[in-house]
Amino acid sequence: GEDVEQSLFLSVREGDSSVINCTYTDSSSTYLYWYKQEPGAGLQLLTYIFSNMDMKQDQRLTVLLNKKDKHLSLRIADTQTGDSAIYFCAGYGGATNKLIFGTGTLLAVQP
Amino acid sequence: SQTIHQWPATLVQPVGSPLSLECTVEGTSNPNLYWYRQAAGRGLQLLFYSVGIGQISSEVPQNLSASRPQDRQFILSSKKLLLSDSGFYLCAKRGGIQETQYFGPGTRLLVL
Questions:
Q1: Strand locations in B44-105, DSSP E?
Q2: What strand order describes the sheet that includes B73-78?
């Protein structure tokens, strides 16, 4: 089945760019997603990318997809303290009704 | 609308007591609904999903059960809680573009 992996922790300074990485195993994933979870809250859909795209930009967010290496990244430009949260990538796990989530990356933004 | 309501927001229960968590959703009819648990740490574990009224698929053997008595209502239950049932329970629905899942605000459960 699908397996999705992320690094556990990333620390950046306010104003810098953040890059959060994710690798997945199931090449049949149609869509790949990034979610943000602030402390004590549910998951908020940030952005998604369709599998036939290489890049998607949405304001400060840039998603890059390397299908050959099965690698997905989320770049946050001009990172703010309000971006501090856990970020999950997720992919659709093949012939199931289920999204498979990574373990989450905790982004800490230092003022 | 992708609005999802979860009730209660926080719950403290003794070991051995019953549990009922409720999730109600707005928007299109007959959505796919999901229950996840997020234990200390961070990973999301899919517990149950439902493709329609009365249709429940269980992902892992456990002390919990789920029911879907109405199209937009999904309930997570237990007859006797264990300490290991503590966690953050998230309800989600599938809507919008294909497999996109939208999440509710969650219920934090502490079993003592």
A1: 44-52, 55-58, 65-70, 73-78, 87-94, 101-103
A2: B4-7, B19-25, B73-78, B65-70
**pLDDT tens-place values along chain A, 111 residues long:** 668 889 889 999 999 999 999 998 877 777 889 999 998 889 999 999 988 888 999 999 999 999 888 899 999 999 999 999 999 999 876 666 678 899 899 999 999
Query: B58, B101, B108, B110: best mutation site toward chain A, by most A Cβ within 10 Å?
Result: B101
Q: Which residues in chain A have their CB less than 8 angstroms from residue B100's CB?
A: 31, 33, 45, 48
For residue A30, the chain B residues in CB contact (below 8 A) are: 98-99
Q: What is the pLDDT of residues B51-85, one digit of tens each?
A: 999 999 998 878 899 999 999 999 999 999 999 99
Three-state secondary-structure class, residue B15: coil
CB spacing of B105 vs A41 below 8 angstroms: yes
Distance from C-alpha of A14 to C-alpha of A11, rounded to nearest angstrom: 10
Could B104 and A33 be called an inter-chain contact, meaning their C-beta atoms sit closer than 8 Å?
A: no
- Which of residues 24 through 63 in chain A touch B, CB cutoff 8 A? 30-31, 33, 35, 40-45, 48
Tell whether omega for the bond before B31 is within 30 degrees of 0, i.e. cis.
no
- A75's enclosing H/E stretch is strand A71-76
Condensed to tens digits (0 to 9), the pLDDT of residues A12-37 reads 999 999 999 999 887 777 788 999 99
